[in-house]
Amino acid sequence: MGTERPRHVFLACGEASGDRYGAALARALREHDPALRITGLGGPALGDAGVEIIRDSADLAVMGFAEVARRLPALWDAYRSLASHLKHSGVDLFIPIDFPGFNGRLAGVARGAGVPVFWLVAPQVWAWGAWRIGRFRRRIDLLGTVLPFEGDYFREHGFDVFPMGHPLMEDYGDNAAFEARLEARERRLSDPVSPVTVGLLPGSRRQELDQLLPVLKVAAGMLGSLVPGRDLEFLVSAAPGVDPDDLDRRFDGNTTVSTAPLAEVLPTLDLAVVCSGTASLETALAGVPHDIVYRTGALNFWLGRRLVRTPHIGLANLVGGGDVVPERVQSEAAPMPVARGLEHWLNRAAVRAEFYEDVRRVRTMCGRPGVWDRTARRVCDLLAERRP
Fold first, then answer.
1. Would residue 1 count as lying in a domain?
2. Beta bridge partners of 237
3. What is the CATH number of the domain that holds 152?
4. Which of 60, 118, 172, 346 has its CA 20 to 30 A from that of 371?
């Protein structure tokens, strides 16, 4: 008898957060099955985890309706090559990670080719586009949820659900470390002569950077005039795929630019301004007082207002069910409101104390560490069920 071929998993990660999650899952899968073949759509993190990259996700990093329209030829070319890979490369299990528009189409291809789909990080149809839910249900065999309210929602709509817990708890689930860092941060903020480090987290997409970097640059200068005498240090976080030299040029060298992962950056911060998205929840789980900012073009905002059906844009606010952190959108995401928001955090210990209590509750709701080991075990079970 010939040697049995290794099982083959295809991971599809379209954005920076998905790339990081895919890399963590790939490493966990290797622990359980060293012979497993893992191919992927992804970026540097996925490649560093030993995944065979079929297509670079940097080609797909677009945001907004107009930008998608301009990039359609490149998106279509990527789709065709990945669809061919799903159909003709002996894939045993397709694992899309978030990125619902593009990955949703690939999931349809997989199901049509008889490849089961284990979707990780549920599409946010509870926020907008509920009409899409039937199409997703037909394309997904098993759905991995990360937010605490998602399990009941998707079960009610006919999905087979695997509650993962939130992947960010891998980095932030140590409660003793959280409390120790919170205590040290509060000592610095309460001491008028201690330096205060303010993090500026503008996101990873080109449109986010173009919209927010000028605002953050001016706001940083304004904050100094609002709190004279405080020793302020500003750190700009360069997300994966963002050129740190470009960030340094935009800020004229008046800030420190860091390419370190957020899990290493956030413990060093005292306050922050964060672009909406996964980074906003990460900042909350790390216990850093912050404001969320979001700006986009007028057309994108007009369309978004009519599509989105949630009261908040920040994940910490959605999980916590209230105003855990302020959200500054469009005209409020301007230099003076942003600077005054930071001043508010800096000068009001009672407001920070309320934030810390809210964050402790959000942390509990996001589950326990061990997300990727649990998920890898479920993947291995699915592969075993599929083996002839």
1. no
2. 258
3. 3.40.50.2000
4. 60
